[in-house]
Amino acid sequence: MTDFLWAAFELFITFFENLTVCHFICRFLKLDLKSRKGIILYLIGCVSFSVIVTVINNFTLYEGVYGLIYTVMFFAYSLFLPGSVIKKAFAAILANIVIVCTNALVTSTISALGILRNTLPIRRN
What we know:
By secondary structure, this protein is mainly α. It has helices at residues 2-28, 36-59, 67-78, 85-119. The chain contains 4 helices and no strands.
């Protein structure tokens, strides 16, 4: 049961992360998210990113070099959006940098909390 809950939580986080990344790329490249075409492109990006990330996560514990796949994926997605190629490349690289930094911060924070919890004396009544 715990494995199922952890997998569901991980899928939720992956989908939320991809919603955020797609929103950033679409807004950065000034895609009209109120139009039908904008909504369709946004949803296609969210779902395809989530599927690709989930597949990669099933094969590896840590992406490492495979993390570059995300930048290529973001750039390929941005080719369908308005804007210059330079701006699209910048959006893809920036999105990946923000994800890596956020993941590092969250991982470090959780690790630090675990260390702090194990080193503090516990008062028991």
